[in-house]
Amino acid sequence: MRHTQNTDTSAELSSDALLTAVKAFLMDNAAPNLEGRHRFNARVAANVLGIIQRERSIGPTLQALDADALHRWLPESESKEPVQELSRALADGRITPDDAFFDYLKARQLLVSAINNPRYASRAIAEERWGV
Length: 132
Description:
Elements: H1 15-30, H2 36-73, H3 82-91, H4 99-116, H5 121-130
């Protein structure tokens, strides 16, 4: 019996492809052959891998949105935590929420939900209503 070795190695496999493969294994092979808590944990692990993939692809857009918002509403701030800084500024009255600020919050929420659970029914409704 002859064994053929594939010479395409890790350099040609993206981390996204690896995450996809492990997720597929968990959902298609492991979970169906497990029962009870083990099946549940395999499905949770597969969902976590999906969140990681979406965070890697959508996260930079979310970070840019937050950085732009910080610059727009608190131009002097050099905070490395824009969401926390904007929240504090909103709480202590340095920001008065207007339509533009609410549009930012809506866009942010849609991105966050696209990472955490893109198939959540309320996300589709919000996206349709907000038109963001």
